[in-house]
Design goal:
399 residues, alpha+beta, Dna Ligase, domain 1, 4-stranded antiparallel sheet, 13 helices, elongated, metal-binding
């Protein structure tokens, strides 16, 4: 689960990390009021969307101006003007895609006198099962581009869970950033506070880009991005309360109600599979035969008829879907349950696109019988390769 920058900074402030004063705003007059409570005289007006690259982004609407989603204002009037331009407009960044995201919230923050910009993040290293720090002197830029062009400018290290974060980790951050004097002590303190927040809140990613040194020689988290482990949210009702559903795909919201693992993609072939590995293989083979999956959807190993029905309805609700591939290998999951769920969904919402079903495993014969006797126009497949070729051919035959 992702949250907005202003929410991330509130969490960091709770753990004692250095962040500027600021307040969210949903309307232009609220933005002006928020700015009036800040020291000034420079204010930063930031669009709040779940995507990076806001400063370099462009608004679709000409009325929103040409200054991107992060703007410096030097008066309360300018804050209000920027707010009016940005709220309700669609911001397109490198991470939103061409569709962009509508700006419904702003964050009004006190300006910073910047001397240097750095990059600092914490994430889960799946290879070592540890929390890792990623540190670079190239702050305020696309870290992926830095990793590609100048990987030597990125320093990474992990924290042993048996000891937790220690002062030498902070000194390593300071050394990687070339910090000296009192800033070394600040780096040690910041490292400990960020690590504590990361672990306490079950984060998956905590990114500070940029981390800055101000002209008066202090560290400050100028931007903050936090993602949480969905599987741990039951331990954090305070975090769940921060969820902004307007930033999420409606189909993904619906899928979460049934505990379905669903991610919307840009392709034309809807997929319903049991098991994440099989789902990935299904998407790969669709791509192999020249088409693209419209989603990742794992119904899980113990899905009920109701859950399968809901999954099928979510797939068919996507207007981009031109064909559907159901690929089930029944272990714990029974093929007859899948068949019953698919038939129930088709009878409820109809079937306007080709449907290929491949079943194998527990109760496979019963599952196939249920589908064949349903009277529906379903294309059976013998194996995954056969299923992928048939759905690709069916989709192309309709185009």
């Amino acid at each position: 689960m992702n949250i907005h920058e202003y929410q991330a900074k509130a969490i960091l402030r709770e753990f004692g990390a250095p962040v500027a004063e600021g307040a969210p705003a949903l309307a232009a007059d609220e933005a002006r009021q928020a700015a009036s409570g800040l020291p000034g005289p420079v204010y930063v007006v930031k669009a709040q969307i779940h995507a990076g690259g806001r400063g370099k982004g462009k608004f679709k609407e000409a009325s929103a101006g040409e200054k991107g989603g992060v703007r410096l204002a030097r008066s309360l009037d300018e804050v209000e003007t920027f707010a009016k331009e940005m709220l309700g407009s669609t911001l397109v960044t490198v991470q939103t895609g061409e569709a962009g995201k509508q700006v419904n919230r702003l964050y009004i923050e006190d300006g910073a006198d910047i001397d240097k910009e750095f990059y600092l993040s914490l994430l889960i290293d799946r290879a070592t099962s540890r929390v890792s720090f990623v540190v670079s002197t190239e702050g305020g830029t696309d870290i992926e581009a830095v990793a590609h062009a100048t990987p030597e400018k990125i320093v990474t290290f992990s924290v042993d869970p048996a000891t937790g974060v220690l002062p030498h980790h902070g000194r390593r951050v300071a050394d990687a950033l070339g910090l000296t004097g009192p800033l070394v002590k600040d780096a040690v303190s910041l490292t400990e506070r960020l690590f504590s927040a990361f672990v306490a809140k079950d984060m998956e990613l905590l990114e500070i880009n940029p981390l800055i040194v101000t002209k008066d020689g202090r560290l400050r988290c100028l931007d903050a991005k936090i993602s949480f482990d969905d599987n741990a949210l039951y331990r954090h009702p305070d975090v769940v309360a921060l969820r902004d559903k307007t930033e999420e795909d409606e189909k993904e919201i619906e899928a979460s109600k049934y505990e379905l693992a669903y991610i919307a993609l840009d392709g034309t072939i809807g997929c319903m599979v049991n098991g994440a590995g099989l789902a990935m293989a299904t998407m790969d083979i669709i791509k192999l035969y020249g088409e693209n999956p419209a989603n990742f959807l794992d119904v899980g190993g113990g899905a009920t008829k109701e859950k399968v029905t809901a999954a099928f309805k979510i797939i068919t609700a996507d207007p981009k879907v031109k064909g559907i591939l159901v690929n089930i290998f029944g272990g714990i999951m029974r093929c007859d349950v899948i068949a019953e769920g698919v038939i129930a969904a088709v009878r409820d919402v109809g079937l306007a696109v080709p449907l290929v079903v491949r079943l194998e495993g527990t109760n496979v014969d019963l599952g196939k019988e249920i589908i064949s006797s349903s009277g529906l126009d379903v294309i059976p497949a013998d194996d995954l390769d056969d299923a992928a070729q048939k759905i690709v051919a069916a989709v192309r035959g309709r185009s």
